[in-house]
Amino acid sequence: MNKQMTNTLSHSKDTHVVLIGADGQVVKEELITIEVNENQEPVVSARELHKVLEVSKRFSAWWETQISYGFEEGQDYVGCTCRYAANQYGGEQELQDYAMKLDMAKELAMISKTEKGKEVRKYFIQVEKDFNSPEKIMARALRIAEQQLSNLKLENAQQHQIIGELQPKATYYDLVLQSTNLTPISIIAKDYGMSAKTLNSKLHQLGVQYKQCDTWLLYAKYQDKGYTQSKTQTYQKSDGTPGTKLHTQWTQKGRLFIYDLLKQNGILPMIERELM
């Protein structure tokens, strides 16, 4: 079955392992999928280990037995979910799963007291050696640094937009259009019979905004016009660390700007189309 772990696990090419025997031939390639968690630690799906060990007992009953050996949630494993393809028509079934650190996975393989368990444990040992090689450690460090730089760029762009919005050019037009009513892009899109996704894409095509890390941001020349108001909202990520997300809404002046821009490009709101 096709499976995708969510919330806790993410795929990494860093943990691909090929076991080589004494004769120099490949013994086993990727016996079980190794993932990495938010802390860049290798982890294993409990459901996948249960399957690879060829355990006959039902997964939930087997898992209850395994954690009774003194393993601690949050330290040795964390709960997560996985999705299985339920049928050939694309349906999916979401199931409870657990992401285990390699030390726990090795112990469970050893506890199984089977030849398959020995094979799996040997595989995990090789994974650890490969994962902790100087080359892989350096690669992970570079990847973390790149992610941190990307996050800083996004935060900087978000703050730049907010600062620009707080310093609009004061004109009589601004005073006339001052309003406390803010409108999300989804509502404006409905006026034109569009989805928010379509209108955002159209504004991008017309050079009004650009997308960075799933966030739409105004180009610099529009940020100080008073067209939008944005706020950053903090939230907690799945790994417990704080994250930020920018929420942008359009002012009445911005709404008129969109109207004029779309009209210049032959796009009218639904109500004006009905009057034609």
Q: Into which percent range does the helicity of residues fall?
A: 40-55%
What shape does the CA trace take? elongated
Oligomeric state of the chains in view: single chain
Largest β-sheet summary:
5 strands, antiparallel
Low-confidence stretches: 1-28, 170-177
What report would you give on this structure?
With 276 residues, the chain is an alpha+beta fold. Helices cover 43% and strands 22% of the residues. It is built from 11 helices and 11 strands. It has helices at 46-52, 59-67, 102-111, 115-131, 134-165, 172-176, 185-191, 196-205, 220-223, 252-264, 270-275, and strands spanning 3-6, 18-20, 26-29, 35-36, 42-45, 77-85, 92-101, 209-212, 215-218, 228-236, 242-250. The strands form 4 sheets. Strands 1-6-7-5-4 form a 5-stranded antiparallel sheet. Helix 3 (102-111) packs antiparallel against helix 4 (115-131) and helix 7 (185-191) crosses helix 8. The longest helix has 32 residues, at 134-165.
